[in-house]
Amino acid sequence: MMTDFGKESIELHKKHGGKLAIVSKVPLNDVNDLSRAYSPGVAEPCLAIAENPELAKTLTIKKNSVAVVSDGSAVLGLGNIGPLASLPVMEGKAILFKEFANIDAWPICLDTQDASTIISTIKRIAPSFGGINLEDIAAPKCFEVEESLQELGIPVFHDDQHGTAIVLLAALMNACKITGKKIEDLKIVVNGAGAAGIAITKLLRCVDMQHSSFIPVKDIIVCDSKGIINWDRRASLNKIKRDLLWYTNRENLTGTVQDALVGADVFVGVSVANLLTVDDVKKMNKDPFLFPMANPDPEILPEDCFKGGASIVGTGRSDFPNQVNNVLAFPGIFRGALDAGAKRISPAMKIAAANALANSIENPTTDKILPDALDKSVALKVAEAVKNAYQPELPLEY
Predict the structure, then answer these.
(1) Is 38 considered catalytic here?
(2) Angstrom distance (rounded) from CA 281 to CA 308
(3) Which of 7, 25, 38, 283 is catalytic?
(4) Catalytic: which of 62, 93, 202, 381?
(5) Contacts of 5 (CB under 8 A, 6+ apart)
(6) What does the DSSP 8-state code read for residue 181?
(7) Tens digits of per-residue pLDDT, 228-262?
(8) CA–CA distance, 30 with 27 (Å, rounded to integer)
(9) Same domain, residue pair 109 and 91
């Protein structure tokens, strides 16, 4: 009999009244404890911070805190369910930060879905936090929100974009190690031009990434619900999709995702369930990699991928091998960024995270190209790589 995780989750949340609690780091056993933690002693750190704001990073929770911010407009596979209904997810994200990277995270669900209001609100709450994790904000709004906050002075990272992209890149790196293929020679089809699809494409092409040892993929075709994104469609595309035209689909192919797959080496799906068939996989190059990551049901089941000739398959699900799970990336990325005192998370830090994640598997196999999602050693390895990759003297585009 299959476990009803939905029912069990309701019971868990009901029993505990949510998943988070605040625990004091200091004792309050007598008047001396009270005088140090609060009045009159607390005036001294306040005055110190007023004189030197940088001291907030050592004297307050800003040293080790992240706000998990959402407007509830694109929650998991549930869509626009709003901020209140998104709260259980944001709580869950917060406990993942704590469990995997010992970061204190708070769920902040905003009762607005207006980009400018989200931006201004985050700017106003930023003094309390060491970093901002944007979560489940719909595209294309999410791009504007993240970009507008990059000068905030603390790392701002939209996990639905970059977490997915980093883990996918690590999976590709190890798939190439196993098969002897070169990542720069792959022809990749990305289906889905939302937050994750755009970020995956930009990372694989190293857009605005002049300083990196990573050799970018040369040929990527991006598809949306209307098919291949190409120059003939430019008048009907939003700005984010139009920008793709400058670094994807170099032959200006037209047609459907099935047309794009002809002669492709890799399929990356961040779109909808049951999109492809065995025959579609057979159109690809020999021994292709497939990453159908739609949740809860992928674009094509792993067994059908293998029937079509796939050599390596990964999905977003925990009940199949090679789960592409963001928890492998974001805790370590923020841990490293906080430890480095980083003001932003650069492309170089993302590449470093992907390399560290890939290298955490000493001998990858076709069924083990990524660590288990519950492997808590991964975050520390990613954190160290991210910390070492941070270069505060470089401008934003690096």
Answers:
(1) yes
(2) 5
(3) 38
(4) 93
(5) none
(6) -
(7) 999 999 999 999 999 999 999 999 999 999 999 99
(8) 8
(9) yes
